[in-house]
Amino acid sequence: MSRPTINLRDLVVLIADPSPYLSMIAHSILRGFGTNKVLEVRNSMGVVQTLSAQKIDILLCDARLPPHGGLSLTKAIRRKVDNENRMIPILVMSNDTRETTIRQARDAGANMVIAKPMSPASLYDRLAWIALTPRQFVDAPTYFGPDRRFKIEGYPGGVGRRKGDHIVDVAKEEGPSLAQDDIDNLFSAARFGKD
């Protein structure tokens, strides 16, 4: 299966990381993807200054960016109503990828979390996901950012809580359920490439 192709050549990417070494790695990976406009800063003040000075297309931000952390910076970017960069794609980079960390980044308004040290494949996959499957932004009293739901498999009771949610009819069960042996055989066939 081939990867989707995205053109990063004309995008301006800002890397916000306190480590010059890790910034250099991300910078090199982005250059390898064809990105020719990569900027680097070491703290959140550098991010604020850069965002006010020029248009940035993507922000790669370390979760522990000094002085207050990348998640606080992400919240500040998302919450400021008159900020023209409010909807910028933000990827939070972290060496802590526990579920709680990912949930905190999501709730701060980050588009994605990427594990550090990052690989070219993982960065490309997340950039492609953001580019090819954009999520609507949600504006609520306690949250502004990309829709935190990646997929909708049905709403509790068939009704969503948001204005744009449509009623989802869940079909009634029909006929007998598959026996466990039949389910195991289906997965076994799929695992070994049989029809």
TrEMBL record:
<dbReference type="Pfam" id="PF00072">
    <property type="entry name" value="Response_reg"/>
</dbReference>
<feature type="domain" description="Response regulatory">
    <location>
        <begin position="12"/>
        <end position="131"/>
    </location>
</feature>
<keyword id="KW-0804">Transcription</keyword>
<protein>
    <submittedName>
        <fullName>Response regulator</fullName>
    </submittedName>
</protein>
<dbReference type="InterPro" id="IPR001789">
    <property type="entry name" value="Sig_transdc_resp-reg_receiver"/>
</dbReference>
<keyword id="KW-0597">Phosphoprotein</keyword>
<keyword id="KW-0805">Transcription regulation</keyword>
<feature type="modified residue" description="4-aspartylphosphate">
    <location>
        <position position="62"/>
    </location>
</feature>
<dbReference type="GO" id="GO:0000160">
    <property type="term" value="P:phosphorelay signal transduction system"/>
</dbReference>
<dbReference type="InterPro" id="IPR050595">
    <property type="entry name" value="Bact_response_regulator"/>
</dbReference>
<dbReference type="InterPro" id="IPR011006">
    <property type="entry name" value="CheY-like_superfamily"/>
</dbReference>
